[in-house]
Amino acid sequence: MIHYIRGIVAGVFPGGVIIENGGIGYEIIMPSLSAVCSVPQGSEVTVYTAMIVREDDVSLYGFDDRKTLSLFRLLTTVSGIGAKAAVSILSSLTADEVQKAVVFNDPDTLSRAQGVGKKTAQRIVLELKDKVEGMISGSAGNAAAQATAASGGGPGDSVSEAVAALVSLGYSRSEAAEAVAACGLKDGTAEEYIRAALKKISRF
To answer: Between the N and C ends of the chain, which has fewer C-beta atoms within 10 Å?
Structure first.
């Protein structure tokens, strides 16, 4: 399994790039929104990859970061969503936009992706909501831990850490603060506030 490739952009083709590493040119399919697809040839880049093996095809799919790779893997677990459909979604929407659409029960946003109909979008929301909330909560928890460490390693204010972590994930400060205040917890950890707040946000 190839987790990532660091190398030189040797070429760009519709739907992907060629990365040269160790004298080998790797043809990698990537979402059109990927930053790697727009860098000048000769630039050194790191691409996080997933190898999809089928009876008649072996393809390498690449992403700018581990978060987008993880979301790609989640999307391909949905019934009827293959690797090409997952890349199509991530070519129309950023990883953050996909996460928000799932958490906020917004299949209309997901159906903007080419080849994704309303029923498929609804299935994505239904099958991935809990998994995406867990994924966001874990990322936010890491952000909160980093914020605590940066401030000197003390326990800090869990509420403030939770709000800051949610803001770092793309939520507005007022939206994050309202959700944390409404979650009903007292003396919880930042991670507990984050998980409870995400459930509140999805209902607003």
So the answer is: N
Q: How many Cβ atoms sit within 10 Å of the Cβ of residue 61?
A: 24
Q: What is the mean pLDDT, run by run of 10 residues, along the chain of 204 residues? A: 92 94 96 92 95 89 94 93 93 90 89 89 92 73 53 59 78 80 80 78 58
Distance between CA atoms of 139 and 136, rounded to whole angstroms? Answer: 5
User: Is this prediction's pTM over 0.90?
Assistant: no
CA 30, distance to chain mean position in Å, is 14
- Distances, alpha carbon 56 to alpha carbons 30, 53, 59, 79, 86, in Å: 20, 8, 10, 21, 19
Report the Cα 202 to chain-centroid distance in Å. Answer: 17
Q: How far is Cα 117 from Cα 99, in angstroms, rounded to an integer?
A: 18
124: which residues sit within 8 A by CB, 6+ positions away?
Answer: 75, 78, 81, 102, 107, 110, 116
Contact 125, 102 (CB under 8 A): yes
Q: How far is CA 35 from CA 100, 124, 136, 170, in A?
A: 21, 25, 22, 19
| Cβ neighbours of 172 (radius 10 Å) | 10
Among 18, 36, 40, CA closest to 27: 18
